[in-house]
Amino acid sequence: MSGLNKLVSNYDEALQGLEDGMTIIAGGFGLCGIPENLIAQIQKMGTKDLTIVSNNAGVDEFGLGLLLQSQQVKKMIASYVGENKLFEKQLLDGILEVELTPQGTLAEKMRSGGAGIPAFYTATGYGTDVATGKESRKFGDKDYILEEAIKGDFALVKAWKADLHGNAIYRMTAQNFNPMAATAGKITVMEAEYIVEPGELDPAQIHTPGIYVNRLIQGDSEKRIEQRTIRQDSEAS
Amino acid sequence: MSGLNKLVSNYDEALQGLEDGMTIIAGGFGLCGIPENLIAQIQKMGTKDLTIVSNNAGVDEFGLGLLLQSQQVKKMIASYVGENKLFEKQLLDGILEVELTPQGTLAEKMRSGGAGIPAFYTATGYGTDVATGKESRKFGDKDYILEEAIKGDFALVKAWKADLHGNAIYRMTAQNFNPMAATAGKITVMEAEYIVEPGELDPAQIHTPGIYVNRLIQGDSEKRIEQRTIRQDSEAS
Amino acid sequence: MALSREQIAQRVAREIQDGFYVNLGIGIPTLVSNYVPEDMEVSLHSENGLLGMGPFPAADEIDADLINAGKQTVTLNKGASIFSSAESFAMIRGGHVDLTVLGAFELDVLGNIASYMIPGKLIKGMGGAMDLVAGADNIIVTMMHADRHGNSKLLNKCTLPLTGVGCIKKVVTDLAYMKISEGKFYLIERAPGTSVDEIISKTEGELVVSGNIPEMAL
Amino acid sequence: MALSREQIAQRVAREIQDGFYVNLGIGIPTLVSNYVPEDMEVSLHSENGLLGMGPFPAADEIDADLINAGKQTVTLNKGASIFSSAESFAMIRGGHVDLTVLGAFELDVLGNIASYMIPGKLIKGMGGAMDLVAGADNIIVTMMHADRHGNSKLLNKCTLPLTGVGCIKKVVTDLAYMKISEGKFYLIERAPGTSVDEIISKTEGELVVSGNIPEMAL
Question: What is the pLDDT of residue D160?
Answer without folding.
Answer: 96
